[in-house]
Amino acid sequence: MSTQENVQIVKNFLAALGRRDKQGLLALSAEDIEWIIPGENWPLAGTHRGHAGLADVLQKANETVETSYPEPPEFIAQGDRVVVVGFATGRIKATNKTFEDHWVFAITVRNGKLTNIREYIDTQALARASEMDASPGPSTSKPIPHETIRKVS
Fold first, then answer.
1. Contact (CB, 8 A) for 109 and 1
2. Could you read off the pLDDT of 114-135 as tens digits, one per residue?
3. For 6, what's the count of Cα atoms within 13 Å in the CB-facing half-sphere?
4. Which of 68, 95, 150, 151 is deepest in the core (most CB within 10 A)?
5. CATH number for the domain whose boundaries are 3-130
6. Closest Cα to residue 126, out of 65, 82, 49?
7. pTM of the model
8. How far apart are alpha carbons 11 and 69 in whole angstroms?
9. What does the pLDDT look like over 67-102, one tens digit per residue?
10. What is the domain partition of the chain in residue ranges?
11. DSSP states of the chain as a string?
12. 151 Cβ partners below 8 Å, 6+ apart?
């Protein structure tokens, strides 16, 4: 396939991802697809293999995060490799905290199917947004000045 055809396949994949179209994503993915998402203690982190792994990570994503892409991504391609550079904003459902994420996907396309996706994401932004607060909110109390403390007897 040509480089332009590979870019179009990746664009179709990202459009299906945006629509949360599981069947469309599976149709564009090789049976042995591998999707690597960096991070630790993050439900989406890990290496997801095959259609079952793809379906699993999509289900976890639906349960975990709401994401929007306010700017169209940039596509850089050579041969069977397509690099996508983008920006996302989102909200972690469990914490209701928002995040901004500058990301890069390095994608391999062979015979018209995605075979490998490696994400490069702002894991720190996602980790911060995923942290549960120890208290309901920031403390607004201030220390009492020493002069105002009176001895009570």
1. yes
2. 999 999 998 888 888 888 765 4
3. 22
4. 95
5. 3.10.450.50
6. 65
7. 0.81
8. 13
9. 888 888 999 999 999 999 999 999 999 999 999 999
10. 3-130
11. --HHHHHHHHHHHHHHHHHT-HHHHHHHEEEEEEEEE--SS-TT-EEEEHHHHHHHHHHHHHHHEEEE-SSPPEEEEETTEEEEEEEEEEEETTTTEEEEEEEEEEEEEETTEEEEEEEE--HHHHHHHHPPPSSSS-----PPPGGG-----
12. none
Residue 35 has φ and ψ, to the nearest 5°, of: -120, 115
- Specify the length of the chain in residues: 153
What CA–CA distance (Å, rounded) separates 101 from 129? 11
Closest CA to 4 of 104, 77, 91, 101: 77
| Interacting residues of 57 by C-beta distance below 8 A, sequence separation 6+ | 35, 37, 44, 48
Task: Name the token pair of 92.
Answer: 């972690």
DSSP one-letter string for 47-77 = EEEHHHHHHHHHHHHHHHEEEE-SSPPEEEE
